[in-house]
Design a protein that fits this description.
- The protein is built from eleven helices and eleven strands.
- The two termini are about 30 Å apart.
- The strands form four sheets. Strands 5-6-9-8-7 form a five-stranded mixed β-sheet. The protein has a two-stranded antiparallel sheet with strand order 1-2.
- It has two domains: about 160 residues, no CATH class; about 80 residues, no CATH class.
- β3 and β4 form a beta hairpin.
- It is of the alpha+beta class and about 300 residues long.
Amino acid sequence: MECKNKSGECGRYPQARLSVLTDVLNRIAIQTSFEPWTKGERELAREQVKGLEAGDLALLDRGYAEYKLWACLVQADRQFVCRCQANTFAIVNRLFKENQADRSVVVELVPHREQIKEIQDAHLPTSIKLRFVTVRLKTGELEVLATNLLDEVLYPTECFGELYHWRWGIETYYGLLKGRLDLGNFTGLSAEAIRQDVFSTVFVSNLESLLIAPANQQLEQKSQSLEYRQQVNHAVSFHTIKSRVIDLLIGPDTIAQVLKKLEPFLLANPTLVRPDRIVPRNKPSAWKSHNYQRNVRKAVF
């Protein structure tokens, strides 16, 4: 893409978009899309609907609040919960204006008249029945969620706040790729080299999630009597896997033998899980951010 600043054109730079369909309960990447930046995140999400299985629930941020994606999910018989922003649909605007928590409204949603032909050409339904619920955050902000979980007995309104909170695992997963695994520090400049770096990084993150599962079970049992549950320290586990990944994949020892050697390292220096901990999100200055990225932040690779 062409880049410009106040001084004029400053050159052409490559740009791509990464979208990962993530299992937030197990921190596993199910499907990874790495495409040209001209392909929008909603388009990538519509393609990744195929990666969902029966019984899965898609958690979507407000950037994905659109009729076409919701219609794809409804047509595929896949459940979803999506946060909505103001000025998207009339029902959403009404709920924001009323500003009342724990509301649940079922409506028949239709696309905008300018979008009808596009929906018809895509062979998607021209009307879908959705439920809109409101949740009051601890900050006092009202949140409006759209879902096709219509049964209010099976899915009571008060459960949606905790349910949607699981979406934060998607943000932390991208933070893991970009921060701890230093995804932006590419090993080459060609498109193929960068593509290899992206998919190998996702592979390593999946491998770590699988390998630490038994250790996490042991730590959880040991910490039953403690105030906070313990879990594997990811800084330790990634460094451990980094030094043993060749042995694990192609070494002479069996996988069971390698895992036995890894176990003491994975159980060392566990961290605590504080589910109700709230850390203020103060935006740092540009200088502090630059200093942190250059001199403080530690990456595994």
